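Input:
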Amino acid sequence: MMPSLLNKSTAQVTRLGRKGCDTVESLGRAGAFLLQSSVGVPSREGFSLWLRQMHFVGVLSLAIVLVSGLFIGMVLALQGYTILVDFGAEQALGQMVALSLLRELAPVVAALLFAGRAGSALTAEIGLMKATEQLTSMEMIGVDPLKRVVAPRLWAGFVALPILTVGFSVVGIWGGYLVGVEWLGVFEGSYWSNMQASVAFASDVGNGMIKSLVFAVVVTWIAVFQGYDLVPTSEGISRATTRTVVYSSLAVLGLDFVLTAVMFGGL
Amino acid sequence: MHAACPKEGYAPMTDTPFIEIEDLHFSRGEHDIFRGIDMRIPRGQVTAIMGPSGTGKTTLLKLIGGQLTPDRGRVLIDGQDVHRLSRKALFALRKRMGMLFQSGALFSDLNVFENVAFPLRVHTDLPEAMIRDLVLLKLQSVGLRGARALSPAELSGGMARRVALARAIALDPELVLFDEPFVGQDPISMGVLVQLIKRLSEALRLTSLVVSHDIKETLSIADYLYLIADGQVVAHGTPQTLDANQDPRVSQFIHGEPDGPVPFHYPADEFYRDMLGPARPQGAK
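Output:
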């Protein structure tokens, strides 16, 4: 009885240790991958590849991000009004909508939508290129797929998400205006002037943009690495696509707490 | 000429070989794929590597192309040790090679013309008019000049492989690696590919390395053959000598016999025990 229990425990510890080693190895691979693919000398051809990816990753994500921003701004205004009006403070609606969006909701929700819309597509596209040996054939032609396929997608993600986040915030504030001012009758002057008085460029807009940039790096990195590192079968592609969305969402939400604590929590 | 092949029995090449493989060992996990392979691939000839499915023929091509690293031994291409080269030097060496993949591996976001033009665009500064002429020449040589505007999704399997062949020879390489070029082809496409490989190898004086298990087609184009099984070279020689080889392993493969040293049955318990013994769940030991 005792030896078998001991063997079982040993096997479990071994399994745990192996899993730990695999995780560390995978993180190391992902780090080397990011460094190798994102660092390099820009070229004219690289610019045109990047521009093309900006279209796929950025322009095609505009609709979902802007529509979501509009609805979230509208809901914020509606919820905020019903609470603020009890205290006679509905004049502060503009301030509430703008700060919520700029500091928190725009970077986080845009990153989550980006992971679902663009991140999963990046993983599936690169994974399919791997499964059909396109990456291998590129290597055999003497072209480094990290520079040709991965780098333009990484840089497109790094740039596109912060721009999408700005769009999300602008449309969200406008959505709040539509509901708060046009529908619920908050005074237009106080909606805008309160916002102007309370929103600081560096600490609110700037910190929101830093968050967005961090999320852009993390989400695009996860998406592209998952595509590049997957098992090249149909099941492998489906699993990697799921992993991209799950890991990205968890990373965004976890990092958001850390960044908020550092930026606004006085840490 | 050759029976079962000891390491010292290299192919009888007069010239210095283009590829030399020495004591190559490679394993995946616990599974040994190669246990000391030695080969010499001569310049300007068609050499075939044959063997049953799962013997690691494609893995061998990846080791030659530097995509995998051996556990022991070395691969020399034109005197350069592939696995000791820097990443930059390896990519430079690959410009002198072309590879035809089993699936064709055409870039799905580019049409036929752009696929063939790809190596020319990334490795040369030729003017557009010259790139156009070169691409059309290569496509003409594989009979697909008229298909230049099609996307890879619109091509049949045989056509895709021919476009891939045009792309593989776009830079006029010295060496072309063919990974199972005849798999899954109808008789007409197969005939076309056999002719193309033979004709292009002769016309361009290519060193061709064909990995295949299609005996008839491979014997018809190869100048020299290596037969690998169980992680080792079991025989090598010209098509005629291999055809006449009496070694049961060689004979079974060359003549397509269903049973022999490579057994028909996957290793299992004795049949009567499985049928008459106590019932056990599927897969239980």
